[in-house]
Amino acid sequence: MNTILYDRKPPVARVTINRPEAMNAFDLATARDLGRYLEEFDRDDDLRVAILTGAGDKSFCAGADLKKMHGGSHAGGIAELWDHERQYRLGQRLQVAKPVIAAINGYCLAGGLELALGCDIRIASTTASFGCPEVRWAILHGFGAMRLPRTVPLSVAMEMLLTGERIDARRAHEIGLVSRVVEPAALLPTATQIAERISQNGPLAIKITKELAWRGLYQHPEEALRYYAAVTALLHETEDAKEGPRAFSEKRTPQFKGR
Length: 259
What we know:
40% of the residues lie in helices and 16% in strands. By secondary structure, the chain is of the alpha/beta class. Helix 8 (203-218) runs antiparallel to helix 9 (221-235).
């Protein structure tokens, strides 16, 4: 059975973690395959947005498969400093230039929450729940511990990180962890609708806007503004940047080419 399902329907790709029997927890093979397909999506000029979800209706991703990812060859020691494969997923070792929407169905826990935090937009089913329970097992919510306080208020993030307790979809929306909460049957249609709307916009402007937003989380404002000035000058010379205003003045739909 394929641990990742990849459905390519330009301009949108759907990437599905396919281990429902394990609550879509990832082992090393799943992490590698996820990284491979996300990189394939990022290289494909016909694709503009990806939707990331989990198979079934019980879990988006329950994090690492503790039976396989800890202990054994991952029992600790200096070698783990170079254990890139375990981090070969969105938001950690892997970064994707195009927008990724998380369609969160059911459990979004531990590394699954880290995965969702690496996405640009998060939409949740009413059945979704979120948490970082790693401290309960004396392990770390590493990327999430750095990213979560930049996503929700610090006190809320610390309560989640230090207690290991879960929150439901309503609370996740209340604190800004997700942008929408919908009924389970509406989850993928809503994510697809947003993806298609994004795909109608200028692809170069979308990629640069994403880069600016993520840089703004950690970069000094002066450095971010220098980057903005440089990419603006480059973007103004593209065909798309000329097509957009021309289409506006001619009252027609722009035909963007991504160049």
